[in-house]
Amino acid sequence: MxxxxxxxxxxxxxxxxxxTNAFGKRIIIAxxxxxxxxxxxxxxxxxxxxxx
Length: 52
Fold this sequence. Notes:
Elements lengths: L26 H25 L1
């Protein structure tokens, strides 16, 4: 299971595409999910830098 931003229950781990529980696992959805996960991972890293 993944959250709407593609994050998982493990901090810093994001999932996208065919390994998720997203409905209609077609290439367009997988591509969109990949982009969403990349943006969420980037934000996670930026947030980590703020706390250091």
